[in-house]
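Q&A log
Question type: sequence-to-structure
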Amino acid sequence: MARLRRSRHAQKGRSRMNVQTPPARILLSRAERLTRKGDRVAAATLYQDVLDRYPSNRRARTGLARLAQEADQADARTLRPAVALFQSGRITEALELAERIARQGPGSIPLLELKAACLRRLSRPTEAIKCYDRALQTGDTASLWTGKGGALLEAGKLARAAAALGRATALAPDDPLAWMQLARCRLDMGQPTAALEAVETALIHAADARAGAVLRGRILIALGRTDQAERALRDALRGDAQDAPALNELAILARATGDRDGAVRQYDQALRLLPDAAAVHRNLSEVARYTPDAPQIATMLRLVTGPSLAPGDKAQLHFALFNAFDQLDETDRAFDHLQQGNALRKAQLHYDVGRDRQLMSWLASLRLPPAPMGQPRLRPIFVTGLPRSGTTLTEHVLARSPGVHPAGELPVVQTAIAPILRSLEAQMRSHLDPEEILALQTTLRQGLADYAGDHDVIIDKMPLNIRWAGFLRAALPEARIVVLHRDPMAVGWSLYRQYFGGGGNGFAYDLGDIARYQGLVRGMIAHFDAGPGDPLIHLDYADLTATPDETARRLRLACDLKEPEPHDAPVTRPILTASADQVRGPITAGRDNQWRRYETALSPLRDALKETGGFSNL
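Response status: OK
Response body:
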């Protein structure tokens, strides 16, 4: 009897489950009846429910495609006002109108593409990806894959972006836009040689080669081929100087090579062409010399209060206005703009320090077998720590030794390790096999060699490579890892006032997050200090600025480098970080006290550092 009661109970449970979630055939029959009655919204919802559960169901896919085709025809007229709003820059209004249209019927491909484009302009790529996925269920087109790849790129999902853009180029091998996006993706992944190949392919098919020439210039800068980069960017101008992106990149290159006045001229020229370009305003604010009546300040104040400005652009303008008012010594006004810019940037990135805490705890628990040394042609030096802790100055000191190539901040290491982490997580493993470490060794050595040219030593100064120190020790026994230490108030202030491009360094836009993240990094350094392999090379930024010659000599000895060129040798190489101006001048002490101008406003940072055990003159 007990078995019988259990059987009846199970049948009732299955019956209730069927009532809650009808089989696919019942949903499909209902959808088809609704289609015949003209209720496209309800029919599309049912078809979508089936596809969510059974993505390969042909009957649902066919029904949804038929509805989408009908919607395409109906939306051709309905979408015109929304498209006009988008083209005029009124992105929020365009999205609101598109969403109202979507509530009247199933989402057609043009409607979903428009929504995705609006969401991307509003710095909401994750939501845009969902729109592209829905559209791809009814249409496998290069345009959709290119759009999805671009949104994934903006969201920092580089591996998925590369796959989507690879599909786009396979479907439309003569589409320059798909190849351009693939080139950008490869550049962000630390594959500049492959990026150059992709942009060259784009240029073969491009009717207007300006954008391709600008991107080619960016890639050549990453490869250290600055003379070729400048020629490519000037080619993009075609002699008439009417291309704002090219002028912006030329200004960046001018600043990187120490030509501050030339950078200002190029930025000014770009803004005459695109006066609303927030990124150019921010770039100019880092090199301009302001007076209280500077026209650019008035322009930025007008733009930042505009109703249709995207949050990302508004954040950049607030950072630019901080730079302007800070220079004019209007500290209260400057800090107000800085707080607004940071708040917008934090909201845009959705940063959660808890995720980084989990990541670093997991990284510390991994077991990584050492790879054999072999006979490496190239020896890497990794300069690590926190961003804004002195990595550029340290790279500059080490680069004075002969045979050393300062490559800047390379994405090579993180790009190589990311798929390994995904594999470990998926398989619930906490160790790597020797074969995996050997494969990582090959990938890292090849990736670094792309940037090194004929040099014997390469410096990668990506600060947060400290997170991957366990992998670097295991895979590259020939490497040296330098760790920077700097007063945490000075680091915190330098982070908070800096706008970082891309989606990284999300902790930098909140004073509490900055303090907590510094604590996590200190914990990682202590863990790797006690781990196997060659010891970390510790460098105090205060020592480097107070006694530069003696400290530099000890550092070079620890890194097995030869004696450098004469001390007064000028810096001629491009420096693409925010520290370029400081590195080109004499090394001086006292930079760690700059935060004291804003000491009262920064009291939350000081309090948070005390809570996390931050070491500082608090």
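Response note: The chain has a mean pLDDT of 86.
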